[in-house]
Sequence to fold (544 residues):
Amino acid sequence: MPITEILSSNSELYGQETCLTEINLDLQESHNVTWRDYELIENNPAGEYRREMTWRVFDEKANRMANLLHKRGITKGDKVAILLMNCLEWLPIYFGILKAGAIAVPLNFRFTAEEIKYCLDLSDSIALVFGPEFIGRVETIYDQIPKIKTLLFAGENRPSFAENYDRLTANCSSEPPQVKLTDEDDAAIYFSSGTTGFPKAILHTHKSLVSACYTENKHHGQNREDNFLCIPPLYHTGAKMHWFGSLLSGSKAVLLRGVKPEWILKTVSEEHITIVWLLVPWAQDILDAIESGAVKLEDYNLSQWRLMHIGAQPVPPSLIQRWKKVFPDHLYDTNYGLSESIGPGCVHLGTENIHKVGAIGIPGHGWEVMITDNNGCPVSQGQVGELVVRGPGVMKCYYNDRKATEEVLKDGWLFTGDMARMDEDGFIYLVDRKKDVIISGGENLYPVQIEDFLRAHNAIKDVAVIGMPDKRLGEIAAAIIELKPDCECTEEEIVRFCSPMPRYKRPRKIIFDEIPRNPTGKIEKPLLRERYGTISLVAAQTER
Fold:
């Protein structure tokens, strides 16, 4: 079953019910308006901070988009790129592309003009829909992307080089396009995080997308009474595939533009949110704001909030221990997935396994897992090896990159590049990225283990451990530490704090700085390596 059929079914069953709400509290604050100042209609004028959409309007807008693409000669298998911030238009455009039989190509909103051009070229996209935040970047390259035959602008103040998405779709039929789709048809191209250079194009079928709906719904039990808060960017598989659980259950979701702790809690309170998916920095910011008194829980109604889950990066156990102290009644889950495995949890902890916090969990619904050595053979229980997964959401290939595909796809197994171990109960613990392992004096150091240890320090907000070149040891571990606001700490204090660790694991260089993270919450270690790779190591080479 193509994923578009789920949307069509929801339109028939729940047509008049709200499915999506967009909230922009930054806009609200700048205009000094109250929470309910605006009439709740489906086509609020641009600039209003709260907008809603019903399932029927969602489906009709997707049909209009599909029919517009057909008018422009875009047919089955053609690629259509999306470059938008999270907004009410995002998902109808995405589903409209799928209904046309075309392949949706979401783009990272942080891409530079050069990266946008690269991804458009790599994916063979022939159309692009973009928003007002990207006018400058698209204007820089629009005469260098000859494959793009259709350039649609979604927003106010249309630039002269693009056409108006709203006006054009309004003049198209809202009836479903006559396109026959199957499970095996190509559906979407997602891009890797680009942590090893320019990103790879990851091709998924409708079968992959539908499998994400069932995996997510099986893990978190979304029902018609739930309301999911979506904060991460929709271009990423994680955010969208977690929303797919709401799509399958026909339940509500809210798109929140902004990540301030008070905005998140206010939205949960006022919109009666029941499920929130957070990234590690946002969960940490919420706890910091509560513990400092900047945010007071009694100001919000949070009694209906039943589940908080985290994904996209390793989760420090100390963070969840703090969370459960503040929110003891919340169910908690963590999800492990890759864009190559369609996102919502080829491995997940499970809300019933809170006693195993620190593990990424067990195989997700419909998934198989192995931990292998360098020859692809399973390692013994407890040994560290590469995590490999197999299931219905494994990508079809890296588009236009046969060599890279063959390196990670073998007999249906996806080799993730993540190092992990399995305990005696079958729970998997992520050790580190294969490429991030530091080899120091012949010993393997796993940065995540050192980072988890350091995060237990009361003054540390965030930490990243990277390898630095060393003439004697080959590499040493360097800890870049971001302190909490108004906290002070010295290098000597960190050294003392690390003394319980085995000597070879202790960081030999301490740097106080901010930790850069990408929009999906992952630490940008390549940036840190570039920033500090040539730093003087004279002090670091002294034995501690």
About this structure: Residues 30-47, 534-544 have pLDDT under 50 and may be disordered. Residues 55-71 form the longest helix (17 residues). Residues 253 and 309 are 15 Å apart (CA to CA).
